[in-house]
Write the structure tokens for this entry.
Amino acid sequence: MILDTNTLSGFIGGDSGAILAVSRLKQVVIPVIVIGEYRFGITQSRHKPLMERTLDEFLQSCKILDIDSITARYYAEVRVNLKRTGTPIPGNDAWIAALSRQYSLPILSRDTHFDYVSGVKRTVW
């Protein structure tokens, strides 16, 4: 299952719901986009060194998904379909949705806008 940034943040931040949801997964998959969003979010934290260490340790047990030319095709399809239906989503989330479709993996997220993307299944924690 793919973790969205709000799930990763909740997990590392100690949210019991996120911890329970992630601990039940057989395999944790994190898009490189999510890692970038999370690292951006912690750059101004007074706990940055601790959060970075915690993230780095956690990532050792995860599969990291990179973007490639195939992902770009899925991304284009996602964006076109969302534009046609008048339901745009944030650009980074369109990339995450594209990876979800490419690898046929659900997304663990609280962001309801993933529900607008055909071919993407979202699970809530």
About this structure: The first helix runs from residue 5 to 13.
